[in-house]
């Protein structure tokens, strides 16, 4: 890597990579311990296993846990010990795996290496090894092989744990110490559940950091710190390493006595322990301990939840829509270290500051940090962001405001961190020097992972039955053949502002040609909604035709006496709406009869629920969080939020998979939810509520394009600030999740601030659309 990489921006001088022989954040393989297990593959297997355990709620009932510990202690360990007769602890164990309940107990037992070794030595006079099986095909083979051996060995003991989870009779604790260990780790997966953790590039970087961590412990065992606190990436590797006890014992022989100086995964570390760990790491390696995706999350910062919700994605049901492109997010941290010489040169009169901007998207983003606000000769986290991959990277500008009443600032230096450059570095970390090494900057990122889709409907022109816009242009192109029918139209934009669907709502029948014929409103049962996949085909300017392919429809049904509205979707789902207007609250409630997937139950909850709740993010006001949540529960229905929650055997307490705002026609949903169903829900609710209230609730009567923010100037979710580092000076709603201030972020400019809306008589008058919406 070149020692002097010059940025292409204007004013860029003296910018170089830290380290001329290797990427920042890496150390020589000769300086670290040798590991004898493939930790990258093993860690991926660990994450997959922990997720299965977390979703298997039956495993964690007390009767099942007691039975699992008994089966492990009395049946499995004697069995696996006999199968390794004649072998030493360093030899490979037989390629078999026990059932999942025993695997889980075994996994927990190994997390205390000293206790595990003592247990094995006292019972079997050797350490029982675990086979290194990392792929699902070999796991299935090992499990089936174990079943055959088990049945022969224990014909009266079922291979699977068949104890009724509600059966508390005749249960006793066979090994209290193992039981305690298992109970402590019940929520382990929550610490390691971020989707980027299973990405290969993340695991490679985590492995390197783990080896550095072990080397630091080995060399600086007497460092004066009571206990070291592993960051989350190091923790993943450490737990994985320990879960192969014979390998772990052989690898860390020379530092066995030091591992007890590390905070256990189930313990809450003290803030001073976290800080001491960070200082030791900085002193040894001269780089920040924390990085994107690997915070020392046992400290206070963990109390502040990430503003971004992303989930492990097994399936994306929207790949069938060619018009949709997935949305990828990544986490970014920027650390700054200022040379102490700066203080001697500048004193307290420095007007220099760092400005953060994005390479692409959100061109209005400018976040400034004064150089004087950074401590000298130590690393400090300056920015913590969540960015869409389409932002390309970030730019840091060193600027000087000058003095006196001079307005503006002068660019002194520029450094750029591109996501693609960071991804090419093993450590996912790059360092730069600014202004002749006076200021050092380190940026780290997580691998981009697929996040929730984010779609927004914006007003568009009236169309006819065929999907063509009502216009003289279309009339002439059709040789003055009349245009029949009137449909309200909305264009669906994705997170990057691309057109991906067109929503059409039928309001009128009749035809128009030169002669002034007047269309009439159709009955409620004929006011169907359809969704077409793709973008408009423009013929002249903004005049065009909707895409041909219809991918979804909603048809009004005659509601029963108890219902206010009912819709039948082409997906097979049915939406039912109640509204009790006599109550003090809104009285709105929804029910969705879902047919896909067949093994789930769905609830549509009014408001922002579960992960979409906006909690108090200030550590200084934790006592107000409960009050803030109570206020959230009492938000008026007029905000238009509905949370879709699915219940299944894997998620008996429910999983929020989508957030809709039917008033603004905005939907955010996990890839496992169908985009067309979400849009049908949103539009059907808006039309129904408008009809119930006899008013144009969501400005459905707007029939032309309203002025939107210029693409890339102020994006919906391209950049989100972590609340832990947010400040009053950075209060833009566009740097927060859209649903925290939905109207400011998502609503088109208010109609009153738009140029006069001059509708063509050909489209039909206001009376037609008023009747077509609320009559």
UniProtKB/TrEMBL annotation:
It comes from the Eukaryota. Residues 492-669 form the GRPD C-terminal domain. Pfam families: GRDP-like, GRDP_C. It comes from Camellia sinensis var. sinensis. Signal peptide: none annotated. Residues 619-638 are annotated as: Disordered. InterPro entries: GRDP-like, GRDP_C. This is GRPD C-terminal domain-containing protein. Residues 624-638 have a biased composition (Acidic residues).
């Amino acid at each position: 890597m070149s020692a002097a990489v010059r940025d292409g921006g204007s004013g860029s001088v003296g910018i170089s990579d830290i380290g001329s022989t290797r990427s920042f954040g890496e150390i020589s393989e000769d300086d670290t311990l040798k590991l004898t297990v493939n930790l990258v593959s093993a860690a991926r297997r660990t994450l997959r296993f922990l997720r299965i355990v977390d979703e298997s709620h039956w495993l964690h009932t007390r009767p099942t846990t007691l039975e699992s510990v008994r089966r492990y202690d009395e049946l499995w360990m004697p069995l696996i010990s006999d199968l390794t007769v004649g072998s030493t602890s360093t030899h490979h164990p037989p390629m078999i795996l026990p059932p999942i309940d025993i695997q889980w107990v075994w996994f927990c037992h190994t997390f205390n290496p000293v206790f595990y070794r003592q247990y094995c030595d006292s019972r079997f006079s050797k350490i029982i090894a675990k086979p290194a099986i990392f792929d699902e095909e070999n796991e299935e083979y090992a499990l089936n092989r174990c079943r055959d051996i088990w049945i022969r060995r224990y014909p009266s003991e079922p291979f699977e744990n068949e104890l009724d989870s509600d059966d508390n009779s005749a249960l006793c604790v066979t090994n209290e110490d193992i039981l305690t260990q298992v109970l402590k780790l019940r929520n382990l997966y929550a610490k390691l559940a971020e989707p980027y953790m299973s990405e290969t590039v993340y695991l490679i970087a985590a492995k390197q950091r783990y080896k550095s961590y072990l080397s630091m412990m080995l060399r600086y065992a007497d460092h004066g710190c009571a206990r070291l606190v592993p960051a989350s990436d190091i923790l993943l590797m450490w737990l994985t390493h320990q879960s192969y006890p014979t390998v772990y014992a052989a690898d860390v022989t020379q530092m066995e006595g030091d591992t007890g100086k590390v905070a256990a995964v189930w313990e809450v570390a003290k803030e001073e322990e976290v800080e001491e760990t960070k200082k030791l790491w900085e002193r040894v390696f001269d780089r920040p301990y924390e990085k994107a995706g690997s915070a020392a999350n046992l400290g206070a910062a963990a109390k502040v939840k990430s503003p971004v919700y992303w989930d492990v994605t097994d399936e994306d049901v929207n790949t069938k829509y060619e018009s949709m492109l997935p949305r990828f997010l990544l986490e970014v941290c920027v650390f700054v270290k200022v040379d102490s010489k700066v203080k001697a040169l500048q004193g307290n009169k420095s007007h220099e500051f760092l400005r953060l901007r994005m390479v692409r998207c959100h061109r209005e983003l400018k976040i400034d940090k004064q150089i004087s606000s950074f401590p000298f000769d130590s690393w400090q986290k300056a920015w913590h962001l969540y960015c869409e991959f389409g932002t390309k990277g970030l730019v840091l500008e060193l600027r000087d405001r000058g003095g006196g009443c001079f307005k503006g600032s002068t660019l002194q230096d520029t450094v750029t961190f591109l996501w693609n450059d960071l991804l090419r570095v093993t450590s996912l970390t790059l360092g730069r020097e600014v202004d002749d090494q006076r200021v050092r900057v380190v940026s780290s990122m997580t691998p981009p992972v697929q996040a929730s889709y984010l779609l927004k409907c914006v007003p568009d022109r009236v169309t006819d039955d065929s999907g063509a816009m009502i216009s003289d242009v279309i009339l002439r192109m059709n040789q003055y053949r009349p245009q029949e029918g009137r449909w309200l139209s909305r264009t669906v934009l994705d997170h990057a502002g691309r057109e991906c669907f067109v929503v059409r709502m039928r309001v009128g029948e009749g035809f128009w040609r030169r002669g002034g014929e007047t269309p009439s409103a159709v009955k409620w049962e004929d006011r169907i909604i359809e969704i077409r996949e793709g973008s408009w085909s423009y013929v002249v300017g903004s005049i065009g035709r909707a895409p041909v392919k219809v991918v979804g429809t909603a048809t009004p049904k005659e509601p029963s006496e108890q219902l206010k509205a009912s819709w039948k979707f082409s997906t097979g789902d049915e939406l039912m709406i109640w509204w009790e207007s006599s109550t003090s609250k809104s009285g709105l409630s929804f029910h969705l009869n879902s047919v896909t997937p067949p093994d789930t139950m769905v609830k549509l909850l009014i408001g922002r629920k579960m992960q979409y709740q906006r909690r108090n993010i200030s550590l200084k006001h934790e006592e107000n969080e409960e009050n803030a949540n109570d206020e959230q529960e009492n938000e008026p229905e007029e905000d238009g939020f509905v949370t879709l929650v699915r219940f299944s055997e894997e998620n008996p307490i429910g999983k929020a998979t989508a957030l809709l705002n039917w008033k603004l026609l905005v939907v955010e949903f996990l890839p496992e939810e169908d985009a067309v169903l979400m849009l049908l829900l949103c539009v059907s609710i808006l039309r129904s509520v408008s009809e119930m209230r006899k008013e144009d609730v969501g400005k459905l009567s707007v029939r032309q394009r309203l002025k939107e923010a210029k693409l890339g100037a102020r994006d919906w979710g391209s950049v989100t600030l972590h609340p832990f580092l947010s400040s009053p000076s950075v209060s833009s709603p566009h740097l927060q999740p859209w649903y925290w201030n939905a109207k400011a972020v998502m609503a088109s400019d208010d109609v009153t601030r738009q140029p006069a809306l001059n509708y063509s008589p050909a489209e039909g008058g206001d009376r037609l659309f008023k009747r077509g919406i609320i009559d």
